């Protein structure tokens, strides 16, 4: 994987770039699931089936988010640690903020 940037504004080296096609395929799957959910509402489907669809969408999105977080920890944090304390502290703070956003409901 590409090294992570030491700046939030350097998008050329984000680790997810290597998985761009995988991420786009997942996005298309989410879109299909959401369209399915919309269709279920239109068709006035049974509420348990709708909740099952919502659960599938939520799990799919959570899976991608956890994968990005794992990538961040495995690559970006390690790269930052090698770069020095100031970069490490910034990278850890960014990671902590990302975790906080993921767990907020």
How does this structure look, described?
By secondary structure, the chain is mainly α. It has one domain: Up-down Bundle (Methane Monooxygenase Hydroxylase, Chain G, domain 1). Helix content is 75%, strand content 0%. It contains 3 helices and no strands. Helix 1 (20-42) runs antiparallel to helix 2. 5% of the residues are buried. Belongs to the CsoR family. Keywords: Copper.
Characterize this entry briefly.
By secondary structure, this protein is an all-alpha fold. The chain has three helices and no strands.
Topology of helices and strands:
Blueprint: H1 20-42, H2 47-83, H3 85-103
Helix pairs in contact: 1-2, 2-3
| Proportion of residues in β-strands | under 5%
State the order of secondary-structure elements, H for helix, E for strand: HHH
Count all strands and give the number.
0
Global outline: elongated
Radius of gyration of CA atoms, rounded to a whole number: 18 Å
Largest sheet: none
Assign the CATH topology: Methane Monooxygenase Hydroxylase, Chain G, domain 1
- Residue share in helix: over 70%
CATH class: Mainly Alpha
Which structural class fits the helix and strand makeup? mainly alpha
The overall average pLDDT, rounded, is: 81
CATH architecture: Up-down Bundle
What number of structural domains do the residues give? 1
CATH homologous superfamily (4th level) name: Metal-sensitive repressor, helix protomer
Distance between the termini: 31 Å
Low-confidence stretches: none
Number of helices: 3
């Amino acid at each position: 994987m590409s090294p992570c940037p030491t700046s939030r504004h350097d998008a050329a080296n984000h680790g997810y770039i290597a998985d761009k096609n995988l991420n786009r395929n997942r996005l298309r799957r989410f879109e299909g699931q959401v369209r399915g959910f919309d269709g279920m509402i239109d068709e006035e489907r049974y509420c348990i089936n709708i909740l099952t669809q919502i659960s599938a969408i939520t799990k799919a999105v959570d899976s991608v988010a956890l994968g990005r977080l794992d990538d961040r920890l495995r690559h970006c944090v390690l790269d930052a640690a090698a770069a020095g304390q100031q970069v490490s502290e910034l990278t850890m703070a960014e990671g902590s903020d990302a975790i906080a956003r993921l767990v907020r409901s």
